[in-house]
Design goal:
alpha/beta; Rossmann fold; single chain; five-stranded parallel sheet; 7 helices; four-stranded antiparallel sheet
């Protein structure tokens, strides 16, 4: 796979040509950089090889399983589902499966811009995570890893956090000490949770 191109402020619009051009004009007028796509295979390639601040997609217009695609990405952008036909139930289901928002056509320019702005904000830093280690018998107290920045993920999607410890402390943790104590420190923006941590291992 090619090295990812970092363009976090760019919005990707995946839709039929006429609708995509209308949406892109609105976004460009508000100052966003926009890339337009009308084909599902190209959409997959773009999302796998580039980073986007947000994605607007009408899955039905391009015959794309956007939910499966988003969940397959290691670093998924916030995405808004566009719908030519929809219902409240459809909107709830989309958000439950990872969409940042849902918007039914036709929509106003203001409605679109508000939703895109909120989706972009949802991908910014929402917390910091750090691990502290105590091993009294080895004379180690509150040894800290580097701070790891946290951003939200879609429902049921997780990230792997790599926490680097000094070599002497890592050796202690992997040794035969019985008084190793770990303290997880999470500093998160209010309302950004819930946060779930699982399967902590030391290699």
């Amino acid at each position: 796979m090619k090295e990812a191109v970092k363009s976090p402020a760019t919005v990707l619009v995946i839709d039929a040509q006429d609708s995509a051009e209308e949406v892109s004009q609105c976004l460009r007028g508000a100052g966003y950089a926009v890339q337009v796509c009308h084909q599902k295979e190209l959409a997959r390639t773009l999302l796998e090889e580039q980073h986007f601040g947000a994605v607007l997609c009408d899955p039905a217009a391009v015959d794309l399983d956007m939910r499966a695609l988003i969940h397959s990405l290691a670093d998924a952008p916030a995405w808004i589902e566009l719908a030519g036909f929809g219902s409240v139930e459809d909107a709830v289901d989309s958000v439950r499966h990872g969409a940042a928002d849902y918007i039914q056509k036709p929509f106003t320019e203001q409605e679109l811009l508000v939703k895109v702005s909120k989706a972009m904000d949802s991908r910014r830093l929402h917390g910091q995570f750090q691990l502290f280690v105590d091993v009294p018998s080895a004379g180690i107290s509150n040894a800290a890893t580097a701070i790891v920045e946290l951003t939200p993920k879609p429902t049921n999607q997780f990230s792997t956090l790599e926490l680097a410890l000094p070599s002497n402390i890592a050796a202690v943790i992997n040794g035969e000490f019985s008084d190793v104590k770990l303290k997880l420190s999470l500093n998160a923006v209010a309302g950004s949770g819930p946060w779930h941590f699982d399967n902590i291992r030391f290699l």
